[in-house]
Amino acid sequence: MSGMMDVRSTTATGPTSAPPPKAAPAQVGQSLLRVDDLRVWFPITEGLIFERHIGDVRAVDGIDFEIRRGETLGLVGESGCGKSTTGRAIVRLYKPTTGSITFDGVDLAPLEGAALRRMRARMQMIFQDPYASLNPRMNVAGIVGEPLDIHSVGTKAERNERVRDLLATVGLNPDFAVRYPHEFSGGQRQRIGVARALALNPDLIVADEPISALDVSIQAQIINLLQRLQGEFGLTYLFIAHDLSVVRHISDRIAVMYLGRIVEVAPSRELNREPVHPYTVALLSAIPIPDPVVESRRRRIILKGDVPSPAAPPPGCRFHTRCWLRDRLGDPERCSTEEPVLRTMATGHDVACHFAEEVAGSAEQVQAVGRGAPTAPPAGSVSPSLGPDGTPRRDLGALPATPPVPPSAPPSVPSPGV
After folding, report:
1. Do 126 and 210 meet the contact criterion of CB atoms below 8 Å apart?
2. Rounded to whole angstroms, how far apart are CA atoms 132 and 207?
3. Which range, 25-39, 280-294, 340-354, has the best average confidence (pLDDT)?
4. Which residue stretches of 301-362 are H helix?
5. Is 144 left (phi over 0), alpha (psi -120 to 50) or beta?
6. CB-CB neighbours of 33 under 10 Å
7. Considering only CA atoms, which of 121, 124, 103, 142 is closest in space to residue 17?
8. What is the Cα 178 distance to its own chain's centre?
9. How far apart are CA 313 and CA 63, in angstroms?
10. Tens digits of per-residue pLDDT, 287-318?
């Protein structure tokens, strides 16, 4: 992107009022975003003429985390746990009910109007649905250039050149700027969304499940694109997804959410190797591992019941109604009466569980991630994943034996005159 105009140095009318330039490389690793006790509640009302407030949906209910410059924090959890609401609250598409969102030393929660608009130039969002997030009445030049128009960046000619440069950066032909969204595939539309997010040279990008609506081959292209752009421009990502295998690939650290709360935060490699919250263990047990030897050691943990309603979360630990560890420990009362706080363990994991130490080294943890040696088969038997000589087999399924099919007889040729 050499030769691209600096969007923070010029405007159509003179010096820009945009925020100060991005941090120097020496500041990489320092805190860029800090979220403290963030709550986003949506009111429940009844009545048509006289509305009455009868409750709240606690989509996000008191979470704390930090993102450092240049890193990728993955945010994972089941559908409805509050991941997307968290991302939208950070960029202030939703107004927080309580709590603080400190971005580079500025609390975004109370900002309104022009002050909020200036800060939004430094944080952008990539939306989940590439079909719904692009205006079908605008061409690509208008979609990608809209942030430049809103913030009065450069002249019209400079904005058009910036759009062409951005399309080239995300791997699209700059001549596509005159086309409309319906003329593109899903992967190309998501690349347009990435170009729009890059238009103002942001410090932080919130990627809200950016690949969930795409097929697998296109998912890999978008992930590789995001990683390349992060290396080139020093971007910081909050990557929201429910596919743990994708999050493990792109993230430096992972935060796990359940029913509006964060239950575990750890470096990506450590969380996938030694999860210490019962919910994280159950999530990891559901991910298939493309290694028959490792997969033979694993056991899936099936959680009982359904996720409770965020309008009426259970008392105490929110996971206790489905927790396998609570059942194994004999249903301790503390789980249902005392809400656990996020604490740092000796392993370096931040975890919200009263009995997380019981998970470390447990059979459930070992079997969920496939660590340790597989159980030896009885004498004279053959492991379903190993051949008689102990090497991995290629035929993993226990297929029923079928007798060989005899070769078919050659077709008979009718004699002449028949």
Report:
1. yes
2. 15
3. 340-354
4. 324-328, 334-337
5. alpha
6. 22
7. 121
8. 32
9. 15
10. 888 888 888 888 889 998 889 999 999 999 99
d(CA 284, CA 358): 17
| Closest C-alpha to 284, from 295, 215, 319 | 295
Cβ within 8 Å of residue 397, ≥6 positions away: none
Residues 109 and 99: beta-carbon distance below 8 Å: yes
Token couple for 41: 């509640």
Closest Cα to residue 10, out of 161, 116, 227, 196? 161
Q: Which helix (H) or strand (E) holds 246?
A: helix 244-250
Q: Judge contact between 196 and 146, C-beta under 8 A.
A: yes
Residue with structure tokens 């700027």?
A: 177
Given a cut of 80, whether residue 417 has pLDDT beyond it is no
CA within 13 Å, CB half, 396: 8
**Average pLDDT of span 326-350:** 94
The CA distance from 185 to 213, in Å, is 12
Residue 246 pLDDT > 80, yes or no? yes
Cβ-count burial 65-100 (b if 16+ within 10 Å, e if not): bbbbbbbbbbbbbbeebbbbbbbbbbbbebebbebe
Q: Which tokens in the block code for residue 156? A: 């019209």
Question: Residue 401 and residue 409: Cα distance in Å, rounded?
Answer: 24
Give pairs for 161-167: CB < 8 Å, separation 24+.
161/5, 162/4, 162/5, 162/7, 162/199, 163/195, 163/199, 165/1, 165/3, 165/4, 166/195, 166/196, 166/198, 166/199, 167/140, 167/192, 167/195
Q: How far is CA 110 from the centre of its chain?
A: 27
Max Cα-Cα span within the chain: 100
Least confidently predicted of 17-26, 103-112, 336-345: 17-26
Q: Count the Cβ atoms, other than its own, within 10 Å of residue 1.
A: 13
Taking residues 48-62, report their average pLDDT: 91
Q: Is 315 helix (H, G, I), strand (E, B) or coil?
A: coil
Nearest by Cα to 275 from 351, 326, 329, 341: 351
- At CA 23, angle to CA 146 and CA 92, rounded to 5? 45
